[in-house]
Structure to design on (149 residues):
């Protein structure tokens, strides 16, 4: 299996397969929230293919929101696009003080996010408070320079 195949399998195909499996079990007015990445808005080396797979997830979010929202179950589909959050996955980017400071400087808040901050947005999108929100991607990136307008 090539690296490209693996990236697409993990970041896109798995989301499609998961929806196929859970769709019959979703209750009316259920909510689906995908996790994309701020890189979806600005794919660049050395993680270009990863970013492109996350961009495709934004398209999947919109397409499924339209498809599932139009059913009598009115299922909502949204996504979050986190910025750099210190986790095992991003460890190589922020392990050094230099790397950490570099990514902090790219945000308007001059700080990195936390898993809890991303989870809070996912909880909101999953709640009844977001009952009229669908097809959206919420950028949770501290105002990173590379984000959208």
């Amino acid at each position: 299996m090539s690296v490209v195949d693996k990236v697409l399998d993990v970041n896109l195909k798995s989301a499609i397969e998961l929806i196929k499996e859970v769709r019959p079990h979703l209750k009316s007015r259920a909510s689906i929230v995908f996790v994309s990445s701020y890189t979806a808005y600005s794919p660049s080396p050395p993680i270009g293919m990863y970013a492109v797979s996350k961009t495709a997830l934004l398209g999947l979010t919109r397409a499924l929101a339209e498809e599932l929202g139009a059913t009598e179950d009115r299922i909502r589909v949204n996504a979050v696009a986190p910025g750099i959050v210190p986790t095992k996955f991003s460890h190589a980017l922020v392990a050094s003080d230099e790397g950490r400071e570099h990514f902090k400087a790219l945000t308007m808040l001059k700080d990195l996010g936390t898993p809890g901050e991303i989870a809070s947005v996912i909880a909101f999108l999953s709640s009844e408070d977001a009952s009229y929100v669908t097809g959206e991607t919420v950028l949770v990136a501290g105002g990173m320079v590379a984000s959208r307008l």
